[in-house]
Amino acid sequence: MSENGIFQLGTFSVRPGEKASGFLSVADGEFQLPVTILNGEEPGKTVLITAGIHAEEYVGIQAAVELADRLKTEKIAGTVVIVKVINREAFENRSGSFGYEDGKNLNRVFPGNREGTQMERLAWGIEKELFPIADYYIDLHSGDSYEQLAPYVYYAGQASEETVKISREMAQQVDVPYMVCSTVAKGGCYNYAAYAYGIPSILIERGGMGAWTREESHSTRRDVRNILCHLGVYLGQKDYRIYYPLEVRDIIYQSASQNGLWYPNKMPGDMIRAGEVLGMVKDYQGHILEVAYGENDGVILYQTGSLQVEESGPMIAYGKISREKDNRKERITNYWTKRSSGFKEQRKAELHDPIAERWQEEIEKYLPQGNLRILDVGCGAGFFTILLSKMGHEVTGTDLTPDMIRYARELAEEENAGCQFLIMDGESLDFEDETFDVVISRNLTWTLPDTARAYKDWLRVLKKGGILLNFDANYGAVNFADTSKLPKNHTHNKLGLDMMAECEEIKRQLPISSRVRPAWDVETLGNLGVEQLSVDFGVSRKIYTVKDEFYNPDALFALFAVKA
Fold first, then answer.
1. Which of 188, 479, 499, 514 is deepest in the core (most CB within 10 A)?
2. pLDDT above 60 for 489
3. d(Cα 458, Cα 428) in Å, to the nearest integer?
């Protein structure tokens, strides 16, 4: 980048606010690579995006073509460099994903060699021309012509601590079920960029079998846009997503010991058990030559989808799912900790406001007669817990945020309410089966990384015939950063734009935000086998009768379910 904001790459000279397309010469002019450069009007970092390192992995190539066409230069702060096909000669000659001349896998030869074979020279050219200009790197792939795979993302794991950290954060923006920390420093393009140049780097895998669909290319394009927004290079709002990638570790790559016909028993994305038969290799007479057994419990990431396998060639790859590295709950807890100090006074005011009587009347409609044992999940500062306790029930409130529980206990003591509060994960409750008559919650399920898991556990702790009562809203359809519909004295207006923007950012990391609610909740609870199920869409009309500090502009629904 020159002092006046002009971006220089090879023969390209792109002014701020301009977009340029053409061919970039690398490796002393031997290779001409199709490239688009978008140089934003605002200064910032440079993101390198490549596709076609494997020429038959078409989803990544098409996504790169679409990104070059659809990204808006006026929304870019910094520069985006898109190389649409790296292994161009192999792509144009439909000669597979290896080098057209030398038959080598480009993603195994980095750092390359100026005097080496074709792919080694290309790797050397990429390193010398593209790596020096990149602050971040996104490499787009899919399954090869013989590979079936579950969508997933690799992030560079052999680099400095900071490079690995940022690489992982980039991977977390990708709408796929799984992510894998690479243990390779050299050979691969993105691995070597991180290892040798300190460039945070990821590789996205989606699609396969030498095919592509518009849905797959659109999903990859959306992933890249979300990453650019996360990095501050694209000035837009992230799209919602279906998945948040779970870490998969201890990857096992099983190869065939001989040529033969491959018959898999599973599909990518399937869960497997140690010792389970994953597939077998047979000869032309149907004799079994080799059986692939699962070495560990895990999930299949990819496998050969063609009938043929070759000696030392891939059969199947799988790994263990690790939930311990999912840091969303830590981030959620930290956010609500920052907000907890004001919750006690808000809930105390709510308990002494006519809104408490309206809530009591609304809840009583669903409860059977008598003194009930009730669990309030995600109790916050304890409004429902204390309210139900004053109604004569034995109530326990749980919340993942320790400060919320501390303030709830203080408030309960001030209100002379005989209830208890426990720090607990709403998705994994520490209670025996069939402990409670009622499980109740308000404005919690929209904040959970795995709401289906929570519903299953709530039903577990309910007695037979027990009641599940959840008050929530379709918050995924609204923007929390927009507080224009709220009264001036509302809490959200007092929090400030940064705090509400952080909440919106967290929300967009949660799959529940992409669901149509409460339709998704009804389907999920129905699949869990509840006996009765009903939805009331009129809760807000009955509770929020005035636009005051407690007002919620988003339409609450009440989900009522009875455990079979």
1. 188
2. no
3. 9
Helices 519-527 and 451-461: crossing angle, nearest 10°? 50
Within its chain, how far is the Cα of 457 from the centroid?
22
Extract the tokens encoding 304. Answer: 């050969």
Per-residue pLDDT tens over the stretch 170-188: 999 999 999 999 999 999 9
Residue percentage of the chain with pLDDT more than 70: 96
Could you tell me which residues come within 8 angstroms of residue 497 by beta carbon, excluding any fewer than 6 positions away?
481
Element (H, E) at 167: helix 161-171
Q: Please give the full DSSP string across 285-334, using - where no structure is assigned.
A: T--EEEEEE-SSSEEEEEEE-SSEE-TT-EEEEEEEEE-TT--HHHHHHH
Under a CB-based contact definition with an 8 Å cutoff, are residues 345 and 401 in contact? no
- 411 contacts 382 by C-beta, under 8 angstroms: yes
pLDDT in tens, 458-483: 999 999 999 999 999 998 888 766 66
- Helix, strand, or coil here: 230? helix
pLDDT bracket for residue 492 (50, 70, 90): low
The whole-angstrom separation of Cα 239 and Cα 244 is 13
- As a whole number of angstroms, the distance between CA 486 and CA 354 comes to 19
Give the pLDDT mean for 443-450: 93
Q: Which of 52, 19, 17, 21 is nearest to 35 (CA)?
A: 21
| Threshold 0.85, pTM exceeds | no
Alpha-carbon distance of 467 to 563, in angstroms, equals 6
User: For residue 244, which of 138, 323, 190, 149 has the smallest C-alpha distance?
Assistant: 323
Question: 112 with 121: CB under 8 angstroms?
Answer: yes
In three-state secondary structure terms, 21 is strand
* Secondary structure class of 179 (helix, strand, coil): strand
